[in-house]
Write a structure and sequence with these properties.
By secondary structure, the protein is of the alpha/beta class. It contains nine helices and twelve strands. The chain has a nine-stranded mixed beta sheet, sandwiched between helices. Strands 1-2-3 form a three-stranded antiparallel beta sheet, with helices on one face. 43% of the residues are buried.
């Protein structure tokens, strides 16, 4: 008779690991918000001005594409925005509703084609697997086609931007650094609410309010699962401003738009990174959202019901659109 599996580790509502090594990412939190984690199928028709397709790169990596409907005043070719989703390197997929609603809107408002790779997740695939996938997606776009009919017909491959949410912002920085080493040209990068941290807790981690998207305990558990065996939070992926990382002065990076929230738990480490980038002479613009927390714009319930969250989301998208249009 087979024994019942036992849960040996879990992240509240998000993830369970069993004693046989299997991982279950079925949402077990409040059912009223489950829809945000549901996958959205692709659609060739334009819904809210955007069509969505899934494609596979020449290396076998699956990517999601958001194509905005052509407008009379659009340029002949639209810039490319390569998106890396968050989830502490352990959770979420490119087709989740929370990303669908945000990046469909951003594609429409910024007049950009969004390409979002389905990143491998820890603990099955520890870092740097997700960074490898991110750079693989960029290399595919940077190479001569064919890619996908939507891209080959409408994308400006000379204007590629990176964008990442939360841990996806960490990935965006790693991919940007690899691009600099490989001579892959980028027009810019947008890092939003990065999960930068150190072994010692910062003041903001201890004092700022927790959110459904981030608590100190969640961060600790996910990084324990995601970082290479034996690594600490001082690893370059989680602490690119630290002593274990290449000096930022030596890293070739595109212009950055660095987006923070003043109620974010990791705000102190974000500011440490920003100051280190400035000291290294890098081109980086800081934008702060006020009276909101980590990845607030992904919470559709709050965006739809709280005028303050809606307004801060509007401002965030506005500054991202301006950054893309001016680089």
């Amino acid at each position: 008779m087979s024994q019942e599996r036992k849960v040996v580790e879990k992240i509240s509502g998000w993830l369970r690991i069993f004693d046989d090594g299997t991982v279950d990412r079925t949402w077990t939190g409040p059912p009223t918000v489950k829809f945000m984690m549901d996958p959205v199928p692709p659609h060739n028709d334009f819904i809210d001005g955007v069509a969505v397709a899934d494609a596979t790169t020449d290396s076998g990596l699956k990517v999601r594409i958001y194509l905005p409907e052509k407008k009379p005043d659009d340029p002949e070719k639209l810039p490319l925005l390569v998106h890396f989703h968050g989830g502490g390197f352990c959770l979420s997929d490119a087709d989740w509703f929370m990303y669908y609603t945000v990046y469909k809107r951003l594609a429409r408002e910024a007049r950009a084609i969004v390409v979002s790779p389905y990143l491998r997740q820890a603990p099955e695939h520890r870092l740097p697997a997700a960074c490898d996938d991110g750079f693989s997606a960029l290399e595919w776009l940077a190479r001569a086609g064919p890619h996908h009919p939507w891209l080959d017909g409408a994308a400006d491959f000379g204007r590629i931007f990176l964008i990442g949410d939360s841990s996806g912002g960490n990935i965006a920085h790693q991919v940007a650094a690899r691009a600099g080493d490989a001579g892959v040209k980028l027009a810019g990068a947008v890092l939003m609410h990065t999960d930068f941290c150190r072994t010692q807790r910062s003041k903001s981690e201890m004092e700022k309010a927790e959110t459904p998207f981030l608590t100190p305990e969640m961060m600790d558990k996910m990084l324990e699962m995601a970082l290479p065996e034996g690594a600490t939070k001082e690893h370059p992926i989680t602490c690119p401003m630290g002593e274990a990382a290449p000096p930022l002065e030596t890293v070739r990076l595109p212009p950055y738009l660095y987006c923070m929230a003043d109620h974010d738990l990791v705000r102190d480490r974000e500011m440490e990174f920003y100051e280190a980038m400035k000291k290294a002479g890098k081109e980086i613009e800081l934008f702060t959202s006020h009276d909101v927390g980590h990845s607030f714009y992904l919470n559709k319930v709050a965006v739809d019901s709280d005028p303050k969250v809606a307004e801060e989301t509007r401002k965030l998208f506005e500054v991202i659109t301006r950054f893309i249009n001016t680089h």
